[in-house]
Design a protein that fits this description.
The chain has helices spanning 12-23, 60-72, 81-88, 90-99, 113-123, 146-159, 217-230, 274-279, 284-305; strands at 2-7, 27-32, 52-55, 77-78, 107-110, 127-130, 141-143, 167-171, 178-185, 188-196, 209-212, 234-242, 261-268. By secondary structure, the protein is an alpha+beta fold. A 5-stranded antiparallel β-sheet has the order 11-10-9-12-13, sandwiched between helices. It has a 4-stranded parallel β-sheet with strand order 2-1-3-4, sandwiched between helices. The protein binds adenosine-5'-diphosphate and magnesium ion (MG). Adenosine-5'-diphosphate (ADP) is lined by residues 105, 128, 130, 134-138, 140, 170-173, 175, 179, 200-203, 238, 265-266. This is Lysine biosynthesis protein LysX.
């Protein structure tokens, strides 16, 4: 197949993907989105005869627009623009999860400092303030007191970009010093890991320790639902364990305490997988390419029948 890759920087994740595609003799067209002019009616040269295009843009805004254009040029794109749009925005992400009946941390959105402060006081301390658009744990605030809340809100309101004037306030989940990242294709997990840290942010990008994690039936069910909630595709689903806190210790047999349930805090659409590939025996890039092949094949079947 002829596969386009939308990118701005080739990271280790993209390298893994490219080498797997080339090993299988697929033709790869690298599309550096910084160099493209996306015409509204005519597809650029790079989009000609592609069987599928994979969005690997780092910047969310580029992801959202580049995938819209791919779709407009009638090139099958993963993940699609609607998925990108939902996942790129934490408000849309949360609404989609709730709509699909997936447990997710309770959240308020407010447009002014005073309204946000009221939400914060209602949730109590600590609670969490997140940027609506962002990743890698950046600009996240765990708020421990009213005075901290006032300061952070004032900073955001005065210094922030307009996106930071949408205040996303969330209950703090007393998770056991770790969260779970599942890489899934259309709701089917490829592999999963836990990210552990003494810091409340357990993103791999923040230096959390990563280990493979085996999903139980409940987690599998939630991964499938969370994926469908945002429209499916190649996704990174983030879950926290509920009912087992940081202070719970291993029992006498050395077994870890098991979670009573999970809560899904977000679904990511241009997911990194290098860390996961290192902790699991699963060949992650191979599984991703398997899925891309099946996706491209089903798209071309659909075209024949159309
Ligand atoms: N409500 C919460 N309670 C406790 N910890 C949280 C909560 N939300 C997020 N976290 C921690 O912060 C990390 C980053 O949060 P997340 O919503 O995934 O933002 P990002 O898009 O920056 O990854 C999570 O991996 C988790 O460790
Ligand atoms: Mg995250």
């Amino acid at each position: 197949m002829r596969v386009g890759i939308l990118y701005s920087r080739i990271r280790r994740d993209e390298k893994l993907l490219l080498s797997e595609l080339r090993d299988r003799d697929h033709e790869v067209v690298k599309i550096d989105v910084r160099k493209q002019q996306f015409n509204i009616s005519e597809a650029p040269e790079a989009f000609t005869d592609l069987d599928i295009v994979v969005d690997r843009c780092l910047a969310t805004s580029r992801s959202v627009y580049a995938t819209k254009f791919a779709k407009a040029y009638d090139v099958p794109v993963v993940n699609g623009p609607e998925v990108a749009e939902t996942c790129a925005d934490k408000v849309k992400n949360s609404l989609a999860l709730v709509d699909a009946g997936v447990p997710t941390p309770d959240t308020d959105v407010a447009f002014t400092k005073d309204a946000a402060l009221e939400s914060i006081e209602d949730f109590g301390y600590p609670c969490v303030l997140k940027p609506v658009v962002g990743s890698w744990g950046r600009l996240m605030a765990k708020i421990d007191s009213r005075s901290a809340a006032e300061a952070i809100l004032e900073h955001k309101e005065t210094l922030g970009h307009y996106e930071h004037k949408i205040f996303y306030v969330q209950e703090f989940v007393d998770k056991p010093g770790r969260d779970i990242r599942v890489l899934a294709v259309d709701g089917e997990p490829i592999a999963a890991m836990v990210r552990s840290s003494d810091h409340w942010l357990t993103n791999a990008a923040k230096g959390a320790e990563t280990n493979e994690f085996e999903l139980d039936d409940r987690a599998l069910e939630l991964v499938e639902k969370a994926s469908a909630a945002v429209g499916g595709g190649l996704l990174g689903i983030d879950l926290m364990e509920v009912g087992v806190s940081q202070s719970d210790t291993r029992d006498a047999s050395g077994d870890e305490p098991r979670a009573e349930d999970y809560t899904v805090h977000e679904v990511n659409h241009t997911v990194e997988f290098k860390a996961l590939n290192e902790v699991t025996d699963v060949d992650v890039p191979a599984a991703v390419v398997d899925w891309l092949e099946s996706k491209a094949a089903s798209e071309s079947d659909a075209e024949v029948t159309a």
